[in-house]
Design a protein that fits this description.
Shape: globular
Strand order of the largest sheet: 1-3-2
CATH architecture: Alpha-Beta Complex
Number of domains: 1
Number of helices: 3
Strand content: 15-25%
Structural class: alpha+beta
CATH class: Alpha Beta
């Protein structure tokens, strides 16, 4: 196994595209959600925007609608 071949279910962070597919939320909506400075589940690596999976799961569990 290559060091970059980590299964999606084992990743602590997800790209916008991966999160959109996994959570059935549109990429545009995720980008809008992560624009806010108060967003607790976004991580920037340079220009790359990643979703912190645990924090996003917690957010989804507490949120009624997005």
């Amino acid at each position: 196994m290559d060091k970059y071949d980590i299964r999606l279910c084992e990743r602590p962070t997800l790209t916008i595209e991966e999160a959109a597919a996994l959570y059935n939320i549109g990429e545009h909506k995720l980008r809008d959600m992560t624009e806010s400075d108060s967003c607790t589940f976004v991580l920037y690596v340079g220009r790359k925007r990643l979703i912190k999976r645990k924090q996003f799961d917690d957010y989804i569990g507490k949120t009624f609608s997005i």
